[in-house]
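Example noted here:
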Amino acid sequence: MKVPLSLNPNIPLALLCLGAIAGIIFAGLGTLQSTQALPENAIARINHTIIDTNSFERVLTLLEKNTDSPLSEADRSLVLNKLIEEELLVQQGVDLGYISLNSTVRNTLIQAVTDSVLSEQQMAPTTGTLKTFYETNQAFFTKPALLQIEQIYFRKSTNKNQKSLTAYNRLKAGAEFKTVKSELGDSITIDLPRALLPPKKLLDYLGPSLLREATALTINEVSEPITTKNGNYILKLVNKLNQQAANFETIRKQVETEWARRNNEKNIEQYVEWLRNKADVVFRVE
């Protein structure tokens, strides 16, 4: 004997009761008939919202994949009532202002609209478009230079400024960096490796402020003492290796991904601007 759809364990409950509340089930489609004729592609109308036939059939097809036998007319009726029930609850939630109160619902709605806008705008870029984008943004696709930095550290003390200034003057006078570091510098827990490193790795050792100072140096140039909350530093750029831009064909996928990201951002900005222009937006001016 066929198991009723509402009791069939092979059909995921989530697919049947999305947004529904138990106990609110319409007795039949007759209770929802409207005096106005439905469009040809509609199977039901709930207030101003249409459930089109194609969407309804897609739901039925999905459910049939989870059952061992075809759906009966009673099953189809129950599914339609579930969809109507869900729509009624959604509309009531909107009327009660739950969208503005629930951040999860708002974010889901925003993401759904964003995805909808982008799906309509999707168009594969031509090779010419990508090459032009690549050439215009070569700096973005070029790896940053590798740097070899040496440092002298002076821990916080009453004479830290004088000590680091003495070291700086000796370096400017021609003293060896290694010698000045040994005689005047303080030990540091983790010193810089004697190797060419990318800025991202140097950031782990130096932090953002010292890294900015280091990248501004020329080869063999020594910085003035730099004061930080941890103490004073003197930096020296020992070596620098500029990297060449990668060949377009080698990184074509990366170029296409970045083109799509920026193109999507532009499309969303234009869409939001269109929404803003047709909306009544009022600001309070203090």
